[in-house]
Design goal:
The chain has a six-stranded mixed beta sheet, with no helix packed on it. It has a four-stranded mixed beta sheet with strand order 5-8-9-12, with helices on one face. The protein is built from 17 helices and 14 strands. α4 runs antiparallel to α8, α8 packs parallel to α10 and α10 packs antiparallel against α14. The structure holds flavin-adenine dinucleotide. Flavin-adenine dinucleotide binds next to β5, β7, α14 and α15.
């Protein structure tokens, strides 16, 4: 089933409880902090339903593309193209869009045996949950990191484990478990149907009560979401803040106050290694972050377009140094496009007849995005100069005839009206300079974990033996008796090219 936007909005009116400061919000479809974004998601559901290439048919039912389990390279191309269409819809600004965590879940179902640890893992629960999400076209995000207060846990603190603020299992019976505590940071949490709770951050032995993976509907009794400041509410108008007014996806802390979870929604319990292995030893992390790479690509294309428009508007596009900047930006965009194609082309088998994108290339792209985003944004801000601050505070200036006349006469350029210039620079500032933009900088830095964690994935998967072999083979080709002889005899006959190629 593919939901309509209206179906989605109806489901959001489920009595969920979200705090903005001390204010309790229960209907995100009407509240000024959330309503525009809620309607953007609704339009996204309609767009997905109506657009070719964003759904597939199985056993007579249509499903969203991100629930497709990949068996062939064509399936991977289908998934990648779907991610791109979906990301283009929001200019790459919805990070935890409906195709992110659902791709994690789909990837896990391609190797469910990882969950098969008696007493601790439940592969059948995972498969049933996947069907539940897929068949009802649900939107799920995740909170898979402990809050700050849980970090300095030690053996000494073991006796006080229940003092940890991190979400943990506090009771269980034949119906299910009771969880209590906090998890961070569920992006999209205000707009999803479901939240997946787990542990991507490794947890130490002794913290088994925290080693729970489960999923709950947002409106489950005992669940409250604690939201950061809403950028949507701060937006002056669509003209002044065209992005933050519509695509503020929300970031919320998840607090569970003795929340009951039925066993069918518990996927792992009481096993610290298993609670993390389900992401890394299945295709979960790979499919999910391949989506992130593709989403970043959409955002990058948008930013490169902005850079070009700004250079034109500023009348500097003909200058060699500016063209150098534009050339560099477009090379970066093409680099990422190539990395995405490479992930698909060099795909890996994961068993059970399934394939996933190349993990090393995917993690390399993740690291590349994390390292480059700030430099890309800085380059475009440099092109902007001070133009944005030359613009009136907001669009109301156009409502006053006298002011509007002055504005059009003195702010326009040979090729552009004052209003068009204002429109472009307001958009650019929303994307690159506003508080919304700053949140995006932080998002691109941390959504997949801090940089040392992202690089650790590459460290883990690199073929170190093969790399060492190159060096070993080269060094084996010469010794103290080879090379330039004291007499000035010719250099060694050993060929470096042969050693590397061999
Ligand atoms: C906008 C945004 C959206 C997010 N969305 C989600 C989401 O949807 N779901 C989710 O589960 N999580 C989400 N996160 C959380 C994210 O995964 C965490 O922020 C991330 O794991 C980093 O944890 P932290 O914030 O506690 O930082 P910390 O771990 O406290 O790190 C702070 C700094 O210290 C450095 N540091 C810490 N430990 C070490 C070390 N051992 N060695 C070297 N340096 C170290 C880090 O590199 C970093 O620079 C989001 C975060 C942000 C900012």
């Amino acid at each position: 089933m593919l939901r309509t936007g209206d179906d989605y909005l109806k489901a959001l009116r489920d009595g969920r409880r979200i705090y903005i400061g001390s204010e309790l919000v229960t209907d995100v479809t009407t509240h000024p902090a959330f309503r525009n974004a809620a309607h953007s998601y609704a339009r996204l559901f309609d767009f997905k339903r109506e657009t070719e290439g964003m759904s597939f048919e199985e056993n007579g039912e249509r499903h969203s593309f991100y629930y497709k389990q990949a068996r062939t390279i064509e399936d991977l191309v289908f998934r990648k193209n779907g991610h791109k269409l979906l990301a283009d819809f929001s200019y790459g600004l919805l990070g935890r869009s409906p195709d992110h965590v659902s791709s994690f879940v789909t990837g896990m179902t391609m190797k469910p045996e990882v969950f098969d640890v008696p007493g601790h893992g439940f592969p059948d629960h995972l498969l049933a949950y996947y069907k539940h999400l897929r068949d009802n076209d649900l939107y799920v995000t995740y909170a898979v990191h402990p809050p700050a207060g849980a970090k300095n846990w030690s053996q000494d603190a073991k006796a006080h484990l229940f003092d940890s603020p991190s979400l943990q299992v506090v009771a269980s019976d034949e119906h299910g478990i009771t969880i209590h505590g906090m998890k961070m940071l569920a992006t999209g949490g205000a707009f999803v149907d479901e939240i997946w709770i787990g542990n991507l951050t490794p947890i130490a032995p002794g913290r088994e009560k925290e080693a729970v993976t489960c999923a709950i509907p947002v409106a489950t009794p005992g669940v409250t979401l604690w939201s950061r400041k809403s950028m949507e509410r701060m937006a002056e108008s669509t003209f002044d803040n065209p992005l933050s007014s519509r695509f503020d996806e929300s970031d919320v802390m998840l607090f569970c106050d003795h929340v009951k979870v039925p066993w069918q929604r518990v996927f792992t319990i009481g096993h610290v290694d298993l609670s993390r292995a389900i992401y890394l030893d299945t295709a979960g992390h790979c499919l999910g972050n391949h989506q992130s790479n593709t989403r970043f690509w959409a955002k990058l294309q948008f930013i490169v377009g902005l850079a070009n428009k700004i250079a034109q508007s500023g009348g500097v596009r003909g200058i060699a140094a500016v063209q150098d900047t534009l050339g560099r930006l477009s090379a970066l965009e093409a680099t990422l496009a190539g990395m995405l194609d490479g992930q698909v082309l060099a795909h890996e088998a994961i068993g059970n007849g399934f394939v996933m994108p190349n993990r090393r290339y995917m993690y390399a792209a993740l690291n590349w995005c994390q390292e480059n985003y700030v430099h890309i944004c800085t380059a475009v801000r440099e092109l902007m100069g001070g133009a944005v601050f030359q613009m009136p505070a907001n669009v109301t200036v156009t409502q006053d005839e006298a002011l509007s006349d002055i504005f059009e006469s003195f702010w326009s350029t040979e090729k552009e009206s004052a209003l068009d210039r204002m429109k472009l620079y307001k958009l650019a500032w929303d994307m690159l300079g506003s508080e919304f933009a700053s949140r995006h900088l932080q998002y691109e830095n941390f959504y997949a974990g801090p940089s040392f964690v992202v690089r650790a994935y590459s460290m883990r998967l690199a073929p170190w033996a093969a790399f060492d072999g190159i060096v070993d083979k080269l060094m084996a080709g010469y010794g103290p008796g080879t090379g330039r002889e004291p007499s000035g005899a010719p250099l060694t006959d050993f060929s470096a090219a042969e050693a590397v190629a061999g």
